[in-house]
Design goal:
The chain has 119 residues and is of the alpha/beta class. It contains four helices and four strands, in the order H-E-H-E-H-E-H-E. It has one domain.
Length: 119
């Protein structure tokens, strides 16, 4: 399938030359040790891009202090959306939940463990 085929599919809006907004969706499960660093690094990179952005962190039923840390971060950052699942549903469902909340023209998916750095 060519790029032209994809862009001409019914219901698909043509892409602008430069995206107008970015969403980053990250499922989190027992990430209390990295959540502050994740937020700091994502924010640093996204601020440099210079486009409106949102960071969506989905707590997938963590048993540690991930949720309290996320709520603390949310109070300080208007770009941060947080979602809490009632129990651990697994990575894929947490990701899907975050994607449902995303409003950016471009949506990036990233794991919380920082194995793949945001930079």
């Amino acid at each position: 399938m060519s790029k032209e085929d994809i862009q001409s599919r019914p219901g698909r809006k043509p892409r602008t030359a430069k995206p107008t907004s970015i969403s980053v969706v990250t499922p989190c499960y027992n990430e209390e040790l990295v959540v502050h660093e994740l937020h700091r690094r994502l924010t640093s990179v996204l601020e440099k891009v210079g486009l409106p952005y949102e960071i969506i962190l989905v707590d997938d039923g963590s048993k540690d202090n991930t949720w309290p840390l996320l709520t603390e971060l949310r109070e300080k950052d208007r770009h941060l959306k947080i979602v809490r699942l009632a129990r651990n549903f697994g990575h894929q469902l947490a990701l899907t939940c975050g994607l449902d909340q995303a409003h950016g023209e471009v949506i990036l998916i990233m794991d919380a463990d920082l194995q793949d750095p945001p930079e």
